[in-house]
Design goal:
Elements lengths: L4 E4 L10 H9 L2 E4 L3 E5 L2 H4 L11 E4 L2 H13 L9 E4 L2 H6 L11 E3 L8 H5 L6 E6 L4 H9 L4 E11 L12 E4 L2 H10 L9 E5 L1 H9 L6 E3 L7 H12 L2
Helix pairs in contact: 7-8
Length: about 250
Amino acid sequence: MKVKTILVTQPKPESDKSPYHDLAKKYGLKIDFRPFIHVEGIPAKDFRKDKINLSDFSAVILTSRHAADHFFRMCNEMRITNLDTFKYFCISESTAFYLQKYVVYRKRKIFYGKSTINDLIDVLKKHKKEKFLLPCSDIHKQEISDTLSSFGIEHIKAILYKTVCSDLSDLANVNYDMLVFFSPSGITSLLKNFPKFKQNATRIAAFGATTTQAVTEANLKVDVMAPIPEAPSMTMAIEQYLKKVNK
């Protein structure tokens, strides 16, 4: 069966320069975007139960814009005012520049890597005397904390926000030829919203090993996998599949 409609379980790209736009145009597809999960901040009254005093820290390791947003939100709720004295270690340049929304950008105070925690290790080791805070979600990659610990970088994890399933009830009677997932949480949301979901002829695309595992554990079939050597991106993997079935 040909694929004519695709639902991508992520926010819609901000510009038409997205590879999904090119894919839709090239193959005459209808591609919609709808996040299956979203982030909610943990209230300060609940965070206080963890007995973490933000003013005790001198440096923050930020792995995403969500982490930045909720760190500064919590500082505001807890009336922390010495934000310009912190040192900020960001996982990427885009996250570092995003901080201009909250603090004055100073190179001596803001450091960044290319895209992974390993990129930051050398600069973090040069600032070992700092007291590091690692803001994160209730669902987070443990390997980030493990990597920091393996290099002797002492830090405290602060769970400031949580990943929750979005309400998808408006999609109950809408069918797509392909669903595209990027995290196990997306699969959880699908089954929570539609506990009687049957895959039937619907194709499922999964990005990453943990997402693929979540699909199979839900007794569903993965039709498109990424990244793979010949298709490092999801759009490339989908296009390879389309070349086979949309002849």
